[in-house]
Please model this.
Amino acid sequence: MDIIQPFILEDGLFRGSFIAADKTISLATGCHSYPDYVNDIIAQLILTGLFLSSSIKYEGTFTLQIKGDGPIQSVVVEITHDDKVRAYARFDETQKPKSAALSDMFGNGKLAFAVSMLGKEPYQGVVALSGDTIAQTVLNYLNQSEQLPTHLLLREKNRLYRGIFVQQMPAKKDKTPEEQADLFETVGVLLHSLTNQELFSDIPVQNLLFRLFHANQLTIFDPKTPAFCCACYPDKIKSYLTHFPKEQLNNLFQDDKIEAQCEFCGQKYTFTRKDFE
Ligand SMILES: [Zn+2]
Model:
């Protein structure tokens, strides 16, 4: 299942999304041959990235990346405004992480996100990894730095991943802060009451959300479909290479060829001297 299913609760006091990206994750990781612990991080980052990117308006590319000094040096996920996803990782194959805790995988790690839009200054944010999971890091960031009260449920079962988030919108005048806080807590209790059996069942997403939130003025919007897509093509890589100083470009030639490989999808491209004349 690949779906971003947006909804609102309590007359717009909360907004949320159900997110699944099975085929997207499988294709984005399948074009690499990474170990399972790296693929697991990529999957979590894709789901979290889809959640963050679906809650902002932009036209361009949203990048979510973790950098560290542990066995995994970096994991990068890129998502376009039309939900096209691609990802890659860099890691040290000789060092296997001791556990799945973020600190064992990334050492001193940081989560960074950036939004690059055509003709506009990119927007960036950086936060230290905290807690054992990516979801926990993002929650700490949203709840503390951005002061956007958010619930985020992110679970894995048999290498399938499902996420639901609910976020409080700017305060409504018709409810006191206490009433809003109570509702936020109630919604969180309902969300976390969801069993894995329900979350990973074949129940249509709309029905699942109705079961959970039928008493919370649930309104469901049109779903969107995330998909794996790499935007690389020969001309783009060639134009990147032409930015190298001539001498450096010359040094890249081996047997009169430059072999370049897209980091995101593994596609190989070969260029000859003629390509740069
Ligand atoms: Zn590519």
Observations:
- The chain has nine helices and 13 strands.
- The mean pLDDT is 92.
- The pocket of zinc ion is lined by residues 230, 232, 262, 264-265, 267 (CB under 6 Å).
- The chain has two domains: 2-228, 234-276.
